[in-house]
Amino acid sequence: MDALRVDLPKQAIEEYKKLSGFEMGLVRMGWVSLEYGYRLALARLRTRHPIVEIDEDPFTLLLEDADVPMAEEQPFDDSSSPADG
Q: What is the DSSP string of 53-64?
């Protein structure tokens, strides 16, 4: 009877982890951790080096970049490059 009591919570946890919502929750938590770490590092950098100018958002669209031609979709190739012979 005690073995059943121990296995039931373990089985429920394993079934919960199989749900797609659980995995997406981990992804979201990872992004939040990454963003928090970035903001923390940025605050430390500003404290140690107050003279340094730092862009708030490096992905901000700037007017001077508006006339640069660029394809909307770029093919992504993550294959490893061939070894030099």
A: ---S-TT---GG
Dihedral angle over CA of 53, 54, 60, 65, nearest 10: 50
- The one-letter amino acid code at 52 reads V
Q: What is the pLDDT along the chain (85 residues), one digit of tens a residue?
A: 555 555 667 777 777 777 777 777 777 777 777 778 888 888 888 899 989 887 777 677 777 777 878 777 777 777 776 655 4
Residue 51 and residue 42 in contact, taking contact as beta carbons nearer than 8 Å:
no
What residue segments make up the domains of the chain, in order of their start? 2-49
Residue 50 phi, psi (nearest 5): -65, -20
For the whole model, what pTM was predicted? 0.37
SS3 34: helix
**In this structure, which amino acid lies at residue 66?**
A
22 CB-near residues (< 8 Å, 6+ apart): 16
